[in-house]
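Lab notebook: predicted structure, single chain.

Context: the supervisor wants predicted structures on file for every construct in the current expression panel, including those that have not yet been purified. This is the next one on the list. No modifications to the sequence; it matches the entry in the shared construct table.
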Amino acid sequence: MRNVIFVIAAAALVASAATAQSPAPVEQAYTPLDLNRCRHQKGQGPEDYGAWQCAGYGGIAVLVSGADQRVTVSFGPNAANEPAASQSLPAFNSEGKTIEWRIERGEGGVRRAFATILRWNTSVTQDSGADYKGQVLVVTRLGPGGVCHVGYVDGRANRNANELSQQIADKHARGFNCKTDKPIVLGIKGPGFSANLDGPQ
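Prediction complete. Output recorded below exactly as produced.
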């Protein structure tokens, strides 16, 4: 009888340890990114479109800046000074209309967004001189510890682009070092793909 009790207790301990080590499921939320509803600060020149201050999930600040037919998108209370505020794509581009927030539950069940996924529009000039309209899903790490691009997925070349971008976010964003790590690319790269693979400068 004692042996049976010991086996049951040991099994319970193993199950408890396995449960404790299992990562909590990642949640998601979506918020619109409509610059017409954001506070705009005018730029200083004809190719400086200024900056838009918006609110995202849980009131997290979203800062969109535009110049030279390109945008940057940064997040958080120090958005203007984060690495993401200087990260764009090499091709001419514009921001998408919906932000996906990847969310984890911390102590006490408190939700914390640790990454975003935003589909950017691109215009890539081919050797023939024609412009190819593409889409790139940009995965951005949120602070603390830096806000920066973690990875990219071609949104048109990959049927599972959303899943690939979520994989980058969930597996790499929290441990990504904005100062030393280079962004990750998953999936097929089509003619509309564009990425900043060198990371922050």
